[in-house]
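Hey, resending since the last one bounced:
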Amino acid sequence: MQELIIGIVSSLLAGGITVAAGWLGLAWPRRVLVRGLSKLTGVGIERSYTKQSAANADLAADLRTARWIKVLTGRGNELTRDSFQVVWQAGNPVLEYGHVLLPDPDDPGGWLARREQEVRHADPGFGAGLLADQLRVNIRYLNAVAAREAKIEVRLFDAPHTHRVILTDRVAYFTPYQPGVHGRNSPCLVFRAGGAMYDHLLRTFDIMWQAARTAAEDERSV
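The structure tokens again:
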């Protein structure tokens, strides 16, 4: 009975602190609670963000010290922006290699079309074929990077578009895509290396990487 009461009180206190932190605009109480729960569950969660876009500054900091990166994403727009510029710099002395998985713009499995339909509910301008067009632009950009830096490789996958993953040797950024919502507005979770979820995301990426085709093949067809 005593343990039950302690558990209830702890939950109420945790909820109260989280709400108060939100009102005050404080991030550290939320992170302390998340890390505490992570240790209890063994999942290995390090941080959480209500929107993927809110994680960009921390992501850039993690990328600057990464020995390797593995990225699986739905469109790849973020790969051309500031947070990833440190990764693409010529002669990056820290980075050993970078693997990037993007959807196959030819969409043999119809997954791009399905994701377009989902996003169109929130963004009417997201017309048929737009996602494939944007992908081809980003593929050309990354192929140019890979041509200059041998440590960077880009491949294309044919699978459901349900999440974004950015892995380094230390952390994994995981964004589960929500139906009818752009990826940048979906929640983002960060898991530390050695945890159960990090290991699962790494294993999933490696399996998809082995099954993917090289992006250079797509560029020749454009």
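The radius of gyration is 19 Å.

Sorry for the duplicate.
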